[in-house]
Amino acid sequence: EPEVTQTPSHQVTQMGQEVILRCVPISNHLYFYWYRQILGQKVEFLVSFYNNEISEKSEIFDDQFSVERPDGSNFTLKIRSTKLEDSAMYFCASSESAGTIRQYFGPGTRLTVT
Amino acid sequence: GQNIDQPTEMTATEGAIVQINCTYQTSGFNGLFWYQQHAGEAPTFLSYNVLDGLEEKGRFSSFLSRSKGYSYLLLKELQMKDSASYLCAVRGNNFNKFYFGSGTKLNVKP
Fold first, then answer.
1. What is the four-CA torsion angle of B60, B66, B70, B71, rounded to 10 degrees?
2. Contacts of A33 in chain B (CB under 8 A)
3. Pick from A110, A33, A2: which is nearest to B96 by CA?
4. How far apart are CA B110 and CA B103, in angstroms?
5. What phi and psi, each to the nearest 5 degrees, are found at residue B99?
6. How far is B89 from chain A (nearest CA, A)?
7. Is residue B55 within 8 angstroms of chain A, CB to CB?
8. φ, ψ (nearest 5 deg) of residue B106
9. B102 to chain A: which residues are within 8 Å by CB?
């Protein structure tokens, strides 16, 4: 079965630093998503992306965050000036189209901000 | 705001049936999803409902009542591997925005 991949699996960074989390969605998928899950808490939608632009974003997704599709395969989440509370698991997901039922989630990147 | 409620934790016995409820109040609705999430892993898709009624898929079934803002996930013939968190998620007015409940941790005991 096709799968979404994410790198790195674990990222440790110091407060104030910038991090880039990388995702490779499934090749024929057109819609991409980032989610966050703080340890022990619920999955939170951050942003959806289609046709090289943001489709929807949540209140969490403020100016500290940005997304990019730098080439035909990668989809990145940049977090500027990281804070302790940014420590979480970040999941990337993709789907074939907006109306598609199923989103495929990647294995996640655990971000630890110290 | 968006509100999705699920019980925090449930325990059931191997071989039994368990029903996990979800109630929601969202500003828009374009479908309700159930995901399974094992500890430390990504959510995996289980089921989807957009019309009222029951959707059955093997040992798993999901029910939706839009007028009541209510759904449940039914797991039959429970197996130890079903021990996981079950997440209820609602897709909003825009097809590209999703709201998740806090998840129900299911413990299956022998």
1. 10
2. 96, 98
3. A33
4. 22
5. -125, 125
6. 9
7. no
8. -100, 125
9. 41-42
Q: Which residues of chain A neighbour B100 with C-beta distances below 8 Å?
A: 42-45
3-state secondary structure of B80: helix
pLDDT in tens, B21-80: 999 998 889 999 999 999 999 999 999 999 999 999 999 999 999 999 999 999 999 999
User: Cβ–Cβ of A105/B94 closer than 8 Å?
Assistant: no
List C-alpha distances in Å: B107 to A15, B12, B18.
37, 6, 11
The span from the CA of A105 to the CA of A86, in Å, is 20
- Which of B41, B99, B103 is opposite residue A45, by nearest beta carbon? B99
- Using CB atoms, pick whichever of A44, A56, A91 lies closest to residue B94: A56
pLDDT for B49 equals: 95
Is the Cβ pair A101, B48 closer than 8 Å? yes
Contacts of B89 in chain A (CB under 8 A): 43
The single residue listed with the structure tokens 């104030």 is A16
Q: Which pLDDT value is given to residue A97? A: 79
Residue A66 in tokens: 């940005």
The pLDDT score that the predictor gives to residue B56 is 94
Residue ranges of chain A with pLDDT lower than 70?
A: 98
Residue B93 has pLDDT above 90, yes or no: no
- pLDDT band at residue B96 under the 50/70/90 scheme: confident
